[in-house]
Amino acid sequence: MSSIILMFLVRFLQVNNSQQNILIILNWNIGKSLPFVFQLLRVQSPEGTARVEVLDSDVTAHLFERIYEALNLNSFAFTLHKDRQRKEEITSSKSRQLRDCGLCHGDMIYLNPVNGAVLFEQSSTSSETHRKPLSESSRPVQSSEPGPSTSKVTLPIPPPPPGAPEEDEVDLQLYKVSGLIERQRDEKLCRHNLNGKCVHCTPLEPWDEEYLKEHNIKHMSFHSYLRKITSKNFVSLEELSCKIKPGCREHPAWPRGICSKCQPGAVTLMRQPYRHTDNVLFEHANLVERFLSYWRATGHQRLAWLYGQYESHPDVPLGIRARVAAIYEPPQSSSRDCIALETDPREELVQQIAQRLGLRRVGWIFTDLVPLDVSKGTVKHIRGVDTHFLSAQECITAGHYQNLHPSACRHAASGYFGSKFVTVCVSGDSSEQVHLEGYQVSGQCGALVRDRVLLPTRDAPDLAYVRDSSEHQYVPDVYYKERDEYGNEVGVSAKRLPVAYLLVDVPCGVAVGGPPTFGATATFPPANRPLQQHLQTLQALHRHIAASDSFLEAMSDLHVLLYLASNEALALGMESLAPLLDAVRLRDGDAAEAWRALPSAATLLHLAAADTGHVPAPLLLAEGVRAEGGRAVWTCAVCTFHNPPAAASCDMCAMPRSDAL
């Protein structure tokens, strides 16, 4: 009984920091057998060393609380170890006692913050303050599942240098987001109030490996990678170069001479841990079905550009998603096994229309489909782990397109680093169904393609060949790492390079719900298809307008807008199309109807209606043409004179009636 009273007095004086009275009580009980031992432990932290008073019968969770109070910490986001090497950790527990951890009087324990958390109060001028976790007032409401933070916290990002290229809007938005992954308070492990934080509920950094692995995220986002490498130091990003540095005057030009100053270093290929685009989202399934209709009609492969915009991806910390709104097929000649692009005279016009609609080219898509059973609609499973995901030629093409669409970055010395441009392959999956797979190639692959180092191989599509040095070009040594028969990681010459080292996976999907940019029920034929049933004509335009629910819905299609601007009957310039493009972008039906009444638009629509032989009565009356008995007049194919419906020959040129137009 006396030992229980003595323990109560020690605990009371311990809370009130009465060390002298505790020592008096202990001296008074010398020689008596006590159920506990008073201990004085030293705690070494980044801010210095402190002492805490505990009993060996205390649980380890009480030790965490004593250290929190003694050091006046901001949160419980710290760990304790018995050694400097952090091998023997002291975990917070409500059942395990200090005597079970092997702690003795006078021992030193080591405190370390978790995920770079700032535990001590600092002045507002300190640069570390900006990397402190969100304050309690700025933290969003915690959800039941951990997820990326969406709080708009201004972070210490360097301003872009003068004359730097303009960054994308999504990049500017992500610079302002903290990116911390909020976690809910754990009722079993957290022993603090609702306003506190501990090691079990403190926010995680966006590059946390365990979180990414748990949520099946294979690569961290590029902005998470930026936060990781710039968390302590400012880093200037440099792209790989395989070319000889120009301007060296110490020797003759290559191939007569080279030195260590101008010679590019050897390249060791590494798997890229991040990706610039984390997801590809098609606004509706009809986009892909419309693209695949050419393959279904001919059996030939097809290639197209993806038009859309970049936006933040809510499922990946600081992620970026490419949202695809339209697919445009450039002029090309294709067969069952190959595709060859041709010069596109309307490429600039397509770019102008897309820019007016708020869209841009975000990637490219191609098919590699071989029918297996036409009755069942199955296709052969060609690509996979046992064969290849992308061939060397496709990787080189993807690297070329990514180099044509670089991404502006304020951390890069050149103003550009990497690319958000994506590659989508349509092929058969393991269940022999049509499947979409998205990819990007690494920055190292883009540099090798830019400097003309990589070549495709004939016999093995999964291997690329590194060009040999010649009198016209010096090629540095290229290596990649693999494990030998003993499990050691060794460098291997990459004369024949597995392209798997160059790939970054990008998941693809189709949006569910939400209004699309363009209509999902478009029936107008896509451009540049050399098929009789896929030709863009005035008749097809009239049928498309008649089948649509509204005029705005009929005009909400990239191929219709391109045909209005480039048809041979009456091409409308960008100035004439500007009001219609704005109406489509803003989804304004009244503005679209107002544009329909303009003389240029009314004339083109009248020609489309007359081409089908079904001219609407309002258009006929506006042109001074009357319908007899409710039946439409017919147009002469020779002189275009409008004749009464009962006439068998033209009243103007006497040619027999023909309904060809």
TrEMBL record:
Family annotation (InterPro entries): MPN (IPR037518), Npl4 (IPR016563), NPL4_C (IPR007717), Npl4_Ub-like_dom (IPR024682), NPL4_Zn-bd_put (IPR007716), Ubiquitin-like_domsf (IPR029071), Znf_RanBP2 (IPR001876), Znf_RanBP2_sf (IPR036443)
Keywords recorded for this protein, A-Z: Metal-binding, Signal, Zinc, Zinc-finger
GO aspect biological process, one term: ubiquitin-dependent protein catabolic process
MPN domain span: 280-417
Gene Ontology molecular function: any one: ubiquitin binding
Polar residues composition-biased segments: 135-153
A Pfam family reported for this protein in Swiss-Prot or TrEMBL: NPL4
Signal peptide: 1-18
Region named Disordered: 122-168
Gene3D superfamilies: Phosphatidylinositol 3-kinase Catalytic Subunit, Chain A, domain 1, Zn-finger domain of Sec23/24
Protein known as: Nuclear protein localization protein 4 homolog
Organism: Bombyx mori (Silk moth)
Lineage summary: Eukaryota, Metazoa, Ecdysozoa, Arthropoda, Hexapoda
